[in-house]
Amino acid sequence: MLTLDHHPSGRHFLQIPGPSPVPDRILRAMSLPTIDHRGPEFGALGLKVLAGLKQVFQTEHPVVVYPASGTGAWEAALANVCSPGDQLLMVETGHFATLWKKLAERLGLQPEFITLPGTCAQTGLPNAWRHGVPAERIAERLKADTGHAIKAVCVVHNETSTGVTSDIAAVRRAIDAAGHPALLMVDSISGLASAEFRHDAWGVDVTVSGSQKGLMLPPGISFNALSPKALAAARTATLPKAFWAWDEIVEMNQSGYWPYTPNTNLLYGLHEALDMILGQGLDVIFARHQRWAAGVRAAVQAWGLPIQCADPAVYSPVLTGVVTPEGVDADALRKLIHTRFDLSLGTGLGKVKGRMFRIGHLGDCNDLTLMAALSGCEMGLKLAGVPLAGSGVAAAIAHFAAHPAPTAG
Amino acid sequence: MLTLDHHPSGRHFLQIPGPSPVPDRILRAMSLPTIDHRGPEFGALGLKVLAGLKQVFQTEHPVVVYPASGTGAWEAALANVCSPGDQLLMVETGHFATLWKKLAERLGLQPEFITLPGTCAQTGLPNAWRHGVPAERIAERLKADTGHAIKAVCVVHNETSTGVTSDIAAVRRAIDAAGHPALLMVDSISGLASAEFRHDAWGVDVTVSGSQKGLMLPPGISFNALSPKALAAARTATLPKAFWAWDEIVEMNQSGYWPYTPNTNLLYGLHEALDMILGQGLDVIFARHQRWAAGVRAAVQAWGLPIQCADPAVYSPVLTGVVTPEGVDADALRKLIHTRFDLSLGTGLGKVKGRMFRIGHLGDCNDLTLMAALSGCEMGLKLAGVPLAGSGVAAAIAHFAAHPAPTAG
Amino acid sequence: MLTLDHHPSGRHFLQIPGPSPVPDRILRAMSLPTIDHRGPEFGALGLKVLAGLKQVFQTEHPVVVYPASGTGAWEAALANVCSPGDQLLMVETGHFATLWKKLAERLGLQPEFITLPGTCAQTGLPNAWRHGVPAERIAERLKADTGHAIKAVCVVHNETSTGVTSDIAAVRRAIDAAGHPALLMVDSISGLASAEFRHDAWGVDVTVSGSQKGLMLPPGISFNALSPKALAAARTATLPKAFWAWDEIVEMNQSGYWPYTPNTNLLYGLHEALDMILGQGLDVIFARHQRWAAGVRAAVQAWGLPIQCADPAVYSPVLTGVVTPEGVDADALRKLIHTRFDLSLGTGLGKVKGRMFRIGHLGDCNDLTLMAALSGCEMGLKLAGVPLAGSGVAAAIAHFAAHPAPTAG
Amino acid sequence: MLTLDHHPSGRHFLQIPGPSPVPDRILRAMSLPTIDHRGPEFGALGLKVLAGLKQVFQTEHPVVVYPASGTGAWEAALANVCSPGDQLLMVETGHFATLWKKLAERLGLQPEFITLPGTCAQTGLPNAWRHGVPAERIAERLKADTGHAIKAVCVVHNETSTGVTSDIAAVRRAIDAAGHPALLMVDSISGLASAEFRHDAWGVDVTVSGSQKGLMLPPGISFNALSPKALAAARTATLPKAFWAWDEIVEMNQSGYWPYTPNTNLLYGLHEALDMILGQGLDVIFARHQRWAAGVRAAVQAWGLPIQCADPAVYSPVLTGVVTPEGVDADALRKLIHTRFDLSLGTGLGKVKGRMFRIGHLGDCNDLTLMAALSGCEMGLKLAGVPLAGSGVAAAIAHFAAHPAPTAG
């Protein structure tokens, strides 16, 4: 029988930036018996989760739910609005922006990649992987596209590989300033329900998201939130699509059902997650993540290690990238911490592999969980011989004691 | 908090032909905490389930696991081996064969549909929806395709909408007899792990399957089992593909990981399912389903109602379609049984809607579960005023008492 | 890791008269993390379950909850109100009445046993084990006790070993008619929450009950519901008592706590059970059990086997004892049914061992669960070669189809 | 439906000295369906847990399992070997020793209480509540009892109210040195399976224990481990006993069953606990607790607060009592920490109420759990305005980083 107990005692601390720790309440809901996805109980469940999702995305328009993980929702977004050879404008903010671009290329599209040039003198890391989306460069590029060949601007809201949360409203303003008809497509897989996100108010046409981050579910469900403009674009786009096609799903969803077998037990979990999230209020949740992030950054700064995000205006409330000194293999450090203290930290991905690790502070956490994680990091850094300027744990204690958690109302 | 208790007391009986009842042991495994899909524990899990799946598909070649439901695996099969405009030979065996054909059309392919003509005098139902795949007609058609324009023959192994299990080995023989290079692609979504299926021995190139039937999992994982010929075809096929692309998945799977976030908690469930299935042995499981099916058919015959499958050679071991007398709305009957006896039966789909219901006898069942289901049907039929020739329950009791269950060794 | 899966497929059918099948909702509640039994959350839980219990016992007076199984509550009832050597009047209604008498003897009390003499011509079983409490004989005996030496009358409400539910109000009337001050102590371990029971209205002084029957919990909690007269008697009784002593418990309970560590996780389950039971209403639940019992008796009568309870006025709604023909070993039959059909039936206890089996129809059941159980019995009886007059299953189908389940309001 | 989520996010930290945190694996086992306690599966389970318990108690003699919480096992130990009016020699080591003495008095026994006189100058606390059992005073008293009127010596192994673990082998030596036939009865409710304990080797006659500490179960099961001498004494003792009587239980246990309904689902949990504990080995577990205790004491000492246990030779590996400065209400501090950081700490009991809190470090813990708990304490102490000599968290980090956890083999 399956056991995941690889340490002799106690609970694992999962502090990667997703999958985030799943609350017991959600795990329990997911273990309810599977029911008939064509029966009346299922329809009622479907309507309820679809209504709740709109509140989380802050939209009045349809949210499409896929029984698939997040990469599928990236593909779905593109497959529904694009035709073969369409041009896209994308921005290199890190590993996931890069993967989305590669996916677009595999679909036969032509993405153009805006990149901040150069590397950082302090850390040696690429500047593009330490900053947010430069809205002004998007505006410039769109203004130059007088023929309106660019079909969509695609950006990542919260770059999970770097800990940078870009200003999406600014991207919308840039597109509008350029008077360009491009769609705005946003990956908020790791931002949704943790970092502020407003699909309608920010003028997003397609938001791509997933279950395993702020929604506190296991991976396996993903989303496309749509605008009327995106729905209109889908009607004429010619990339082949079937599983991902919005039209049948949106229509069937009106009665709470799906055109093909949905992900029953993950939808049970989604039901619970929505209950928990909407019961507390999104603003309380956003403030909670900001407070956690500030405490974790206080620790990193006390250690004297660089925070990967170089621009305080776009620090992520969801995760913090910690750059290790040259010569310290961040993955060897992570392995030591995992083996010794039963704590999982996020690995460095792509261009920053081995040079950083990521501390997730999202979802089902609390102050003491983060104190545990920071303690594990500090012990690991010491054991790895990394010289520290001071105690990050002490700094976090000072922060969390001084700042009470936000509460509703 | 989510509750699915719509009846005041007792357990729901889920006797639809999938999702099948999920064993508690699997539901529990699925509710273990989500872990880091890039950590060492995950890699070990990945290797174990991939090895187990090969045994279930009876193949030595790769089995690709998608974090997506079954319709996705249909699309994946086609997207990997086809190029735009490719011709396919498909067979109308029922609703799911029809849906797969429509999906092929949406992808820009050209499926040709072999159909058994006419309707049945006794029931008024289409003959095509009461019989299996006519291998000889496939042979004929392929022989006529001297230019080898047909890329693949696509058939459904166990038609979930009709209760017909076609002879796949015969289809392979037909292709070979025609000397045609077409790939053989088989949907065994509802056949795998309940009805005998041999991917390698039967010369299947792509088997499409899913989690929510014989594997006794909730929906949300699906599969493509591959042959070397299919893998070769994928290298030159030009339909755009990214999420579904086999190449990266097969490569990453060698170390137990996936190129994008896998469906962690459903993989926990899959681990348990494989343990349970391989621990008993496939042959015992196949025999068990055959015995259940015979008991259920004995009941239907005693009631004097037609079994939807008109050909005893291809009776499904997984489900039995029961045709209601003209004038009796099968869905009203199902609703009555659901309301009164907390029993879910499968609805009639597509061309047989309202004229039949389906009794699932697969997965986590036993004799008494089926006796409960047949009792619910018999009470419902009586309450609906359907004249019965005799007691199906008595016939099933006679059958199950007379035939001991198969055991291993 | 623990597994209870002794059959290769499907769920076990537990149709013994307790422990009854525990609803998933209760099992899940019981698996919530254990909390501090001195913390504020616990106090709130304590107050809630204590209030709910009063409703189930239909009393306005204290209900004492023991972290112990039912035998402990028998002892508690006696230990609190008796002094060494006290006389008790008890009635032999079956195995559990006999065990309670033996327990009284071990405590140094002097129970007198009223017994219906003789054996039944048809079945050879003792008459006392086929009938209810004879209230008139209690009245007689008490009238003869002019010195009021008898401290208490102790009777079993629902005899789990025989399927007889005695008339408790009649016993109270008998005591009153005799003008006797004896306390009325009632074991309703298997009656509470399934068969009608009214602690206050029926003038019961101590009701003993347990968790694993109508409350649908696992064993491990038991109860003493008290009257003011019982509380007064406890103040002067001199049997040594500490763990069982009501005084400290009743006092601490006022704030929702217990003087020693309570049974935290079973109390979680009790919370759920009370929610489920009181949400439906006791009268609906009582009617539901009566209907099930009538269906099961219809089956037994159709088989032509004697129902153990010889008096239709006191048929138990909770269980039905089935007497096997002489020469048929009821335990061998039970074993055959368990092995072949994964169905547990109750064994014959004490004086009826080997001559009967018991079908439980209580708690988390429904019509189809009982049809499954009756099917298993009928198949087992056939396989054991027991000649049957007819089909019990057919009789039960006729009964359940003809009688809709009771609903609230 | 029951929810225990009183904080908006994250898991509760339960760091009281019992109930200890229950591993998920045990909670899951406990939620398996309840089975027939007279069926064959149950008998096999019974034999397995009874054998495992002997290993944990380090005895070759019977261990009696009660479906009752620990106070019941205290009563059982006395009720089986004592006769009315028997003299006992007990030692005031704290709150639980005092409660056991009161229980003995309620049973009509005559306990004599050895007490270390005076109060501590530094803390104002009673000396008796800061030290272990003084074996030499027991020896003296027994030597003076030349008539051998004292039936038993009763001591607490690990005083949960003080964090003192007494030397039980020394007590046995004292009894032997006095040449006295008194039985040695030991409460190791909170010691068993966390602190070294050897029933046979240390010559204990009755060990009383419970489920909710080192065995990592919820409360509800308790134990009496017996010696042949205790079994012999029970044959002639005359206190009334029924529920607690060893004789029937020991006899029925030979086949894996109990004379009355056992605590099925807690026994499932016990099965898992034994698997986990014996799989690791007791010595590894004892060393693990010693290491944790040393880390926690390093923190308390760094804060400059007195450890309640005044004698380093008897520091408890299970919990550490922390004495708060005069004027600081320890319960107000605990409440602040609970409210703000979702951490439960143990309250001061009896004579030390309000003057101390207890940190549990037992059962399903690990280094990071303790770091979280110590961080919560340190933040709470700061917020309560308690002046600290230094950072306890920093001291614990230094300790845990410097000392690797013990491993088997």
UniProtKB/TrEMBL annotation, chains A, B, C, D:
Transmembrane segments: none annotated. GO terms for biological process: glycine biosynthetic process, by transamination of glyoxylate. The modification N6-(pyridoxal phosphate)lysine is found at residue 213. GO terms for molecular function: alanine-glyoxylate transaminase activity; L-serine-pyruvate transaminase activity. Its cofactor is pyridoxal 5'-phosphate. Substrate binds at residue 358. Residues 52-302 form the Aminotransferase class V domain. Gene3D superfamilies: Aspartate Aminotransferase, domain 1, Type I PLP-dependent aspartate aminotransferase-like (Major domain). Belongs to the class-V pyridoxal-phosphate-dependent aminotransferase family. This is Aminotransferase class V-fold PLP-dependent enzyme. The lineage of its organism: Bacteria, Pseudomonadati, Pseudomonadota, Betaproteobacteria, Burkholderiales.
